[in-house]
DNA sequence: CAATCCGATGGTAGCGCTGTCAATAATTGT
DNA sequence: ACAATTATTGACAGCGCTACCATCGGATTG
């Protein structure tokens, strides 16, 4: 006794095939590999799909094919503006493709990351996007055993698990400090919060640039493991002033801190840039609007998200990039806060 | 000829059942309804699961049970800070539960929302969280036919599709304006960007508060459909000054605009709050840190996300709330930008 | 003590789709 | 013209799990 339609409204692939006058498997191929069908059948199936309003059952597809059409995304934070832009790129790029995004948040914990990767592996994603290059050995093993394209984002390094898209935080930071030095500043403070690996590399860029000018001094460095806020920028700056009153510039590992420093300067009547130059990192939108406008390092976050998805999808579908590592670079946006006085 | 293990390493529920010495269906019940098992079997299955490192196949589960363990979340923006907090609450709450989050972004398009809801419906989510109460008639129909708990978030209203958690934007805005009026201001400008439904209701709160004081004047209102930025705050404020030079306070529909106004005031040497009071909306972190600190309306975004997930999961599992609408309220954070001069 | 009920367990039969491979039709080379 | 090849298409047998019902011993009841 053959199976009847489970419910009056239930459209399965079988129904589509019947209406189109083909076998179910041919109808199935219509979705997976339409070029394999003759034009006449393709059109017949196509119109049957439309007529019946057929929607594939993803669970059945996944079960039968041992694959899903899910791209996993592992990021360390949902509140950080930086990731909002990356995510926007990711979601924008995934729309229109057959793939859907599964987002997971590590909250900057590498153990949580391990756990999440294990979870992802169990669900056999079609591709994976992970943040950074500092996975634990265990996480790396999981990634390598994942058997799907993997793209590491936000930064680049020498040994990609698979593919990478990002930029060099070290170089970006080094460039920012070089710029500040060129303006004639000598005592350049460093303000850092939540020293994640990328922030750490920004510190190294700062340190090496300062050392190259024989100006590095540990007293100029103030960091904390506390998450970044604007308020924290002011607090750290106050700390810095206590330790080293005679500073003439501050480099902040992100723009929130930089804004906090600017506000603290306003509170203390420190004239920017006359008494103090300020440089941030990321170039969030408000930096251009502040008074004085704030210098920052622009990074291509939206593009990073877009490229990450494109690279993963291309790899899934067999179009591997010639070059596995894509450097999206950065751009120093010089603004009033680090420019010579004009007034 | 019985089925063999597909691959040497493949652990299916059958393997677990075999090791535990129970039937597969009993092992299955261990996950779905552990109380139904006798304690001895429960322990046996439990240790078998652990010993084999069994991970359920979600696709098979979904196919056989006609359900998924996915909670769909529909929001209008990924870049808006407001949603970052809500999302954080949502993801935090979903962790530890069996449910996973599927995020979709409408970009403030109600047509896109319709399309996404249709997509979700096809995948039979266990629950759904959608933003706002202004769905199209079609979207509402889809939601009602969804056959799963639905929570509308960000605002509250009279006719929930199912459940709601949010607050009254009208009341919050009305309260903010009342506060400004109490400070003795009379010409209060309104600055609005991307007039989505919630921003529209904030406008209505402003309008009615002003009308109640017989102070409403359309010339005081400047809005645009452009997305919000800090820079835009300055631009809109400049427009406002052109139209109505003699204003003594500005209410901004969000904090980014408020910050932009503050910067524009600094540029124009307008003293805040002496010459102009500024009030924002959302109470983003930087508001307390600005110079002068900026008054805003605090909303419980993180809690909103948490409650939304909890309510949906509870409803999925049969624990419907007594009251379907949850008002999380708001709090006016009065700061220097709207306080009487102290200096 | 039979009738009834209930909690615990198991057997059967798919869920809707696709991998594999065989079968057929169309095309080509010699 | 005939074998060999290549494009299309189809049949079959599950993927791993759970819904549905059947079963079975033991507790409850009058």
UniProtKB/TrEMBL annotation, chains A, B:
<keyword id="KW-0804">Transcription</keyword>
<feature type="domain" description="HTH lacI-type">
    <location>
        <begin position="11"/>
        <end position="65"/>
    </location>
</feature>
<dbReference type="GO" id="GO:0000976">
    <property type="term" value="F:transcription cis-regulatory region binding"/>
</dbReference>
<dbReference type="InterPro" id="IPR028082">
    <property type="entry name" value="Peripla_BP_I"/>
</dbReference>
<keyword id="KW-0805">Transcription regulation</keyword>
<dbReference type="InterPro" id="IPR046335">
    <property type="entry name" value="LacI/GalR-like_sensor"/>
</dbReference>
<dbReference type="InterPro" id="IPR010982">
    <property type="entry name" value="Lambda_DNA-bd_dom_sf"/>
</dbReference>
<keyword id="KW-0238">DNA-binding</keyword>
<dbReference type="GO" id="GO:0003700">
    <property type="term" value="F:DNA-binding transcription factor activity"/>
</dbReference>
<dbReference type="Pfam" id="PF00356">
    <property type="entry name" value="LacI"/>
</dbReference>
<protein>
    <submittedName>
        <fullName>Transcriptional regulator</fullName>
    </submittedName>
</protein>
<dbReference type="Pfam" id="PF13377">
    <property type="entry name" value="Peripla_BP_3"/>
</dbReference>
<dbReference type="InterPro" id="IPR000843">
    <property type="entry name" value="HTH_LacI"/>
</dbReference>
